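Dear colleague,

Thank you for sharing your sequence with our group. We've completed the structure prediction you requested, and as agreed, I am returning the results in plain text so they can be pasted directly into your records. Please verify that the sequence below matches your submission; if there's any discrepancy, let me know and we will rerun it promptly.
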Amino acid sequence: MNPLQYLTDLTVVLLIGLICGMISRKLQLPNMLLLLLAGMGLSRLKYNGNLVFDFSHGFLISISVLTLVMIVFDGSSRFKLKELNTFSKFALKVVIIFLILNLTILGVATSYLFNIKNVFLCLIFAAVMSGTDPGAVLTLFKNSTNKVIELLKIESVLNTPIIVLIPFIILDLMELNVNVFSTFVEQVNPFLQQIITGVGTGIVIGIIVFRAMKKFYSENLSPLILITAALLTYILAESLGGNGVLGVSILGIFFGNFYVKEKEVLQEFSSMLASSLEILVFILIGFIVPISIGVDFFLKSMLLFILLIFLRFIAIYLAYLNDHINLKEKIFMSLNATKGIAVAVVAFILSKEKISKYILQDGVRTLTSFDLIEINGTSTLITLMILFIIYSMILASISTKFSKYFIRKKVDEE
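Please find the predicted structure tokens below.
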């Protein structure tokens, strides 16, 4: 495909994304839902027997990694250590308890219902499903102010970098071929090296860049420096054998807690860029969603989603056991577990990810590289991720419409 065709296709996709945004605002529907449906439709368009939109593997991976880096940086930069108030502590408790419940109960249920034998894949799915999307939460609740809504907003900001980081740590464990305890002990050092390298890269680049930006600010250059620093951290950490997502998370925390000139303006820019990339990614993620899903698969996915909501209710109940939040408010918080751009990006990367593993052949360990999608169960979990995005957005939209019955305050609308 020539460059002009690429540019034309990209422009059309972005234009359709903007139209979906205007329609969703008019109909008061989640923007992400329409973008997904638009992507599913565009991926099936054909002219003279050929697909109208056919993006290369390298382009899709580059866009998804760029989006991942900006999401992680933007989410972690909002984690301010000095502002850990009571709301933040309660929200963090929900994140931790929900994550633990998902990794244990939801992971086992996924393996049983869909006959997925690979433990790592089930753990990746369970970890990703532990998050809520800050963009979706802020869009649904707009300018509403209420104790419960504030808790949901803080929780969504706190859990985004965590639920994006854990799947890639698990992917690292898959590549290390940790499948029994004896081999796990052997792989502790390489695994710790990945963590230390990722953290170290984020710290070093953070100190260098933000120390320079302490006094320097340029309307044109500072935003570019911010993007470059985030991308450089990811690339350098991965090149040195570390975890790039962890490195970007540390860089974001540095940015959020370090004095930088005109920080508010720069944060607004990073959020705007992440939101712009969101349009593109949500349409492109629709390209990998199968239109025909069997009734059995649909029913099992609904059952698993109900379990997810139930586990979220347990997590919220335990976290706010001694707090003044009534049962209706806890139910409302449980129903608002919107999955968004972070889940979409992880699903997208998993669909294109290549992993390397040592395999014994005739007594000799050889390093073999293959697509993650080739592992039995990967495509199933990617489909589940997309379905859960749709389920969660519909459920959250319905619960928000009837919010006054749960939190004694109707959510404000534009």
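Summary note from our side: The CA atoms of residues 143 and 412 lie 7 Å apart.

Kind regards,
the structure core
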